[in-house]
Amino acid sequence: MYWKKDSLFITTAKAVESLGVKYRRARAVLLSMVESGWLKKEGVSRSTIYVRNKEEHLLKVSA
Description:
This protein is α+β, with helices and mostly antiparallel strands. It is 35% helix and 16% strand.
């Protein structure tokens, strides 16, 4: 997924646009990134945003 350096967050709608996938798939990708520790989910429902996780020690590397 392309992420601008000056972007502080991404929404599901922006992920849909960037990835060229449907809403459900974009949400699944974002939630997978949350589970892996790359993103943090903030907010609920329509106000949900995904923020880059700067805490490197929390990142899980899958082999």
